[in-house]
Amino acid sequence: MSTTTKDAVAHGETSRRDFLYIAAGAFGAVGAAAAVWPFISQMNPSADVLALSSTEVDLAPIQAGQIVTVVWQSKPVFVWHRTEKDIKAAEDVKTDDLREPQTDEARAPKPEWLVVVGICTHLGCIPLGHQGQYGGFFCPCHGSVYDTSGRIRQGPAPANLPVPPYKFLNDTKIRIG
Amino acid sequence: MALQTNSKIVKWIEFRLPIISMLQHSLVDYPTPKNLSYWWSFGSIAGIVLVIQIVTGIVLAMHYTPHVTMAFDSIQHINRDVNYGWLLHNIHMNGASMFFVVVYIHIFRGLYYGSYKYPRELLWWLGVIILLLMMATAFMGYVLPWGQMSFWGATVITNLFSAIPGVGQEIVTWLWGGFAVGNPTLNRFYSLHYLLPFVLVAVVMLHLMALHTHGSNNPLGIDRKGPQDSIPFHPYYTVKDMFGFMVFFLIFALLIFYEPNYLGDPANFIQANPLVTPTHIVPEWYFLPFYAILRSVPNILFIPAKLAGVLCMFGSIFLLFLLPWLDTSRVRSARFRPIYKQLFWIFVAACVGLEYAGAKPPEGIPLIIGRICTAYYFVHFLILLPLVGWFETPKTLPKSISEPVLGGGAAPAGATREKP
Known about the structure:
The structure holds 2 protein chains of 2 kinds.
Chain A: H1 5-10, H2 16-41, H3 47-50, E1 55-58, E2 67-72, E3 75-81, H4 84-91, H5 104-107, E4 113-117, E5 128-129, E6 135-138, E7 145-147, E8 152-154, E9 166-170, E10 173-176
Antiparallel strand pairs in A: 1-10, 2-3, 3-4, 5-6, 6-7, 7-8, 9-10
Chain B: H1 8-16, H2 19-29, E1 31-33, H3 42-61, H4 71-80, H5 85-113, H6 121-143, H7 148-159, H8 168-176, H9 183-214, E2 230-232, H10 233-258, H11 288-296, H12 305-326, H13 338-359, H14 364-391, H15 403-406
Antiparallel strand pairs in B: 1-2
Helix pairs in contact in B: 2-10, 3-5, 3-9, 3-10, 4-5, 5-6, 5-10, 6-7, 6-9, 6-12, 11-12, 11-13, 11-14, 12-14, 13-14
């Protein structure tokens, strides 16, 4: 004979009803989670936004010393055709002196091209090019100063300007993203 | 039963805001007639559909663009690009249809069991207001996709007001915000389509307050004589309503996942064109009976057909406000009213006939059916119901809700709530 609910409750045991409660509750919880997911997911980038997630840049027209701003994933990206002087300034820095130690080589595999996301790592303003005492970028909002490799040197920003994922499709063309 | 708790937090809240005891009073202890059938599940199902419509609607509003040049494309954007946009859109557009299915059943339940009678007249009135708000909301929502049916539906329905003598055309221009349905119309409809559901929620709350004042009617249509005729709402009707939800969701899901466009009109996949009217324009299915009345009415005496049709169409709903007094019988349930019971089913048939006539072009047989059914609709309410109340001999009512089942007044085992 199976134990009845009354017997089980009287003896403080697990009854069939406890099992039913837990099974029904678990089933309901899984169902609710599945039903809620589309309502959360709909706020993520839609297919047409994701379709614009990479940007190709033609490097040929960019003169030595010129910084060009392109848009990648709605963000400004600085593409800097650096001069010998800019490169030397970046390479001569001792990484121990940096807030976020990174070599220039790691940030710019082809030294004449620096590609960085143009958003100050402090609070999201867009820094100005060719400004500041290190010859790189200067953020007018709160005075963060970046060097010719886009590394943070002074001011409140905590990190270097990030290098987006990109690759050379040929000598004069890159794809960001 | 008062709220019993040892929780200090609950007591702290209760002392300042008696919300927990209020919920316990109206959702747990709330004494409910013990003989409610599944026809009484449609009220709570309508409630859950309203919630679903609001939640999916808020989410769709995050992706929709209310502008004549972008509205149609933004619907395609929702269907193709937005994560689960196809699902949310399908739920929302079929949810509107299901809302009307459920509410129409709920209304016919009320008609059959006399739920509009003393002391529930205001409860009934609030229900009719809910129906009117639903119609306005659904109509304006249907305009938003900016397809051919959206545009021409909006044109036809707003033009109904041009039938008003004298100031008709001025009112229509005011409704449009221009000289035809256009961008200002689309914007204001979007604004109101977002507003009205929250007004609906407020009226539903009043509907529930009125309901809980005298409690639900029941299939016997007689008042409860004592505690032996009631059972607590929880767990008996919470479980019963949940089961109703499950069955409803199954049917709803079939529509959403397998036939999402079954109830829609193919013409609405063509972008609105103010220069070309579709050859056969029809409203959504839930408006067809009223649309049939509009088109069936000929010139009445000195009233031109256009005005007469509009008056009859709106009158067909406003008659419902008078129903508690047009029905002169004091017996609520049709179970005990042999003649009314037959008239009820003829009335249902007339509504089905109007639904059929509304979907067809107004000529030949459908027009004749539409006219007969329109005539019956008004004769039913204005002539038959007042007379039948006088001439009909009702069957003997049972002495109490318990009597037909248990043959007496003794409290049965299940009627009192088991204390843990």
